[in-house]
# Entry
Amino acid sequence: MRSIDEQGYRFEEWLTPAQIAADVQQVAKQIHADYKEKEPLFVVVLNGAFVFAADLLRALNDLRCEVTFIRVSSYWGMSSTGKLEFIVPLQQVVDNRDVIIVEDIVDSGMTIHQLKAHMRAHGASSVRVATMLFKPNKLEYDDARPDYVGRELSDEFVVGYGLDFDGFVRNLDAIYKVKE
Ligand code: IMP
Ligand code: MG
# Structure
């Protein structure tokens, strides 16, 4: 098992690249089944979701769709600040579109709760959420329960595959869990 040290913490490999790839394929299969008659607009939440989105969208090779990006920030260190900041706002018209928000991880659900309200306020006809990871025990917003999930975990801090620890380790090819 691989491990890394970052800012005094030890992280151990939890999902290998092969396991992640299988999870992504399973999510893509579900999305394809639900959207093959539609032309969804994927809204990728930067920064964390860029790796998952790149794999997910290429696994949806046969789906006619559009992709846009939004950048928000809510985290500092290992916990959520509870406030969402729009660093790069929505660049594309979501009015009358079937929107699929692409996230790296849903934790308290605050980010998704606010983003869904934002998409609806801008006229999206439907809004669903695809996330690589989901912490169901930490969910505080009922409407933020994701529709497509790669993998669930409990209340643990994870990094890699787009997920950062104060900006670093997003480039790891696997997902690592902090060692208690
Ligand atoms: P939420 O708004 O509480 O659901 O938090 C969602 C955001 O917090 C995600 O988009 C991540 O950027 C970040 N986040 C939550 N849990 C983790 C984690 O375990 N590792 C790294 N980032 C995390
Ligand atoms: Mg994020």
